[in-house]
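Repro:
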Amino acid sequence: EVQLVESGGGLVQPGGSLRLSCAASGFTFGSYDMSWVRQAPGKGPEWVSRINSGSGSTYYADSVKGRFTISRDNAKNTLYLQMNNPRPEDTAVYYCGIPGGSWGQGTQVTVSS
């Protein structure tokens, strides 16, 4: 059974930093592209970032480019999202998942002073 468990969310001040983690199990993690998406209150889901399985190529939404960094540790079956210089508009529930496949339950990130 595929399981994806996000952690690391919480309250962060604008301009601070936060690192989200996603522990994966039940599938061959290193063989899959992985993504982060988010959903802000009252809004639809927004794709944030993607990392490819083989090349490790990364892709970002314009809204987070230059501030967020996606990475993965295949030995630890873990996906990360480093959030630097977050803004109040980054407040959302963040989900990790397999594009077109399973997603986790999400972790809340609140950016506020």
